[in-house]
Amino acid sequence: MEKVSTPRLKETIEEITNIKHSPYVLYFQPQICLNSQEIIGLEVLLRKRNHYNQIINPNEFIPELERTKEIITVGKWIIQNSVLQLAKWQQSGYKGMLSINISVVQLTDESLIPFIKEVLELYQVQPSQIEFELTESFPVENGQLLIMLDWLKQIGFRLALDDFGTGFSSLSYLESYLLIH
């Protein structure tokens, strides 16, 4: 499971490994079926600790990550570590979905799709077990971003709207283009 498949993936993993010593931490929030009360999935949540080891509200640091485009590197760290954790859970019998938030800024990174494919191959996880969540404020008029989402969908990932009701997107347009869950 630790074999790195290509030099590009190895370089990216080395770059994002530096984040290990950063204040970022991942939490996995259970998604519960109301009828059966069973865990049907987990949502990955990025958190950051301040120098007092207290959790900082994501609204206080994620916009800065997006503005500086650091979210591209941090997002790859999230994807790599989330998929690794999912692979470990699957070896123990977990069969649920894993939901990962993805930023519009991340979707502008041309290396994102190849990176995701290689991480899935490395950890032997199927794309159908992962759902990428977009905020409702996703700019539906941006054709290049929609192409990236279409590629994710064609690979087999599920796509979902996060924080529905808080933005101003055209839901009918997104529904016609995406598989909304």
Descriptive overview:
Helix content is 43%, strand content 21%. The protein has 181 residues and is α/β, with parallel strands linked by helices. The chain has a single domain (7-177), classed as EAL domain (TIM Barrel). Strands 1, 2, 3, 4, 5 and 6 form a 6-stranded mixed β-sheet that branches. The two termini are 31 Å apart. The model has no long low-confidence stretch (mean pLDDT 82). Residues 6-181 form the EAL domain. It holds the Pfam family EAL.
Overview in brief:
This protein has 181 residues and is an alpha/beta fold.
Key traits:
181 residues, alpha/beta, TIM Barrel, six-stranded mixed beta sheet, 7 helices, Cyclic-di-GMP_PDE-like
Which of globular, elongated, flat, extended, rod-shaped describes the shape? globular
Number of domains in the coordinates? 1
Counted by DSSP, the helix tally is 7
Report the sheet with the most strands, covering strand number, pairing sense and barrel closure: 6 strands, mixed
Beta content: 15-25%
Order of helices and strands: HEEEHHEHHEHEH
Find the structural class using helix and strand composition. alpha/beta
**If you average the pLDDT, what whole number results?**
82
- The total of beta strands comes to 6
Q: In CATH, what is the homologous superfamily?
A: EAL domain
| CATH class category label | Alpha Beta
Share in helix: 40-55%
Specify Rg, calculated over alpha carbons. 16 Å
